[in-house]
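URGENT: need a sanity check before tomorrow's submission.

F., can you look over the Tetratricopeptide repeat protein record below? I want to be sure the sequence and structure line up before it goes out.
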Amino acid sequence: MAIFLLCLMCQFSIQYKQFLNSPESEVVFKGLTRKEYRVADFADNPVILWFWRSNTGSAEADSFLKKIHLRKNFHLSAVLRWEAKEAQTDEEKMNKLNLAVHFDSTAIENFFSILSLAIKNRDLQQIKSAFALPILTDFRSQLFLISNIILILAAAVFMCGVVYVLIKTIHYLPAAAHRLGPEKGGQMLDVVKTIVLLSPIIIFRNLYLIFICYALLLIFIMDRQEKNWLRLNLIVLIIMFVLSLPVNSFISFLKEHNYNYQVYEMINYDNSLTIEPNGKNRELIAYGLKQQGNLERALSLYEELYYSGNRNLAVVNNLANIYFLYNEDARAESLYNYAILSGNRGEPYFNLGLLKLKNIEYSESSRLMEEARKRNFSSLLKEPVDIKPGNTDFYKMVFSEKLKFNGLIKFIYVVPLVIILILSFLPFKFTPPFYCATCGKPICGRCLKEVDDEILCESCFTKFKSAKRAETEEELRRAVSKSRRRLRRFILYAVNLFIPGAGLIYINRHLTGFIIMFFVILGYVPLLFPRIFVKPAGWIAIPFSPIFILIAMILALFSYIISFLIIKECDAD
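Structure tokens as predicted:
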């Protein structure tokens, strides 16, 4: 554990590594331990403050670190989140998380950690502070959210399909069992055949295989409306597979399995990572090298891009900034003027203003600074400002990879869905079963008894025939019908209690049932399938199950209320 944390801390910066390996670290440690120095003496030195707090857990060092403006540092933020996980009290956890936010306010882990702790403590102010974090501006956080939202939606759509198929199976299973030969044999044989048709559930115990088996059976039994809803579910599942194709590249990026993540890390995090540039990402790597202080390699790459014709605003401005730092003022001014003519961003105006200020041209510098402010740009820095690659550049980098058809969702899983969809349009269909007008039992043409244009099963026909008076027969009919309604109502409420909205599908209120069921399953999926989440490499966060428990409870509560109210209204009719 200590080695893991040390590895993260060593990625703080080159200066931190050098400090750890120098005799100065021992001198400072002894001086602070013996109180020859005060922590306040190093209030402006983040390297020593971090060194001291990592060895002693000094809260005073943490308070000084919060006041220092530092470049975004994902690795130190991860260390603080780990400390928050190990902390004993919620107050200590929150203090650690607040410092983690200071180092990297865009990390999605900080958002979930703070939100989970706030929900646990029922602290509305902490919830507001969590949602105030600018996580949506960070490319890594965007990929995390997009990937997991698509996967959760796909899982929810699939589970809706599974529930729909099972509900329709409950309705059609007795009829399918009765039509399965031999048709004659009595009620006991129908029970045996029903158990045979339930064998996929017993044998496979896999939701996907169960869905495929029963969907394949039902497309030859269901009526047109029911079949259309199954087709819609299959089409949406296929669309979700298509949408998941870019997610495969996103997952490779998040898991740090590719070259693109190293480029992103080099640009956004404080590290000494060295990457060999390729033809696609030279501009991004040049920016990263400049942030690391490797001006010579950055200058070489920017000049290569510039003279090869890649003269976009970022390349020209950032190349001019290097000339500015090398005191090649004439070349820098020429490039700044070119950048001003090429675009309408404020950075070239600001940088040229700094150059004029350096050459004691105060009036021209003031004019250029005002032009920069008109373009919504201002800075307190006394050095030229680079144009940083944006999320659009990173999306182009990720989408430049070839799509992988066998990623998280395998292509082979989609083939049976396409086959079932095609088969559903074939004109072949099993003849619909007959139903007893009194008890509702499914019967075939050989078993039915027709009395005065009324279809009866053999059991009801025998009961009514044995009645000697018309009043007795009427009482028997009412008793059988009441028993039928009681059974139907029991199944209806039991199914809806299992999944809100499923009961509405059972009574053919498909649209309302699907909408309610989709939202409640959407809340259940993260709890039922926690492994579905794609967690980026280096994921360290306080468990966020309280977030999904709260969401699931709210969705389930409203879904139960709405669905049972609709069922009650339909039952009254």
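My own read: Strands lie at 434-435, 442-443, 449-451, 454-456. Residues 1-11 have pLDDT under 50 and may be disordered. If you see anything odd, call me.
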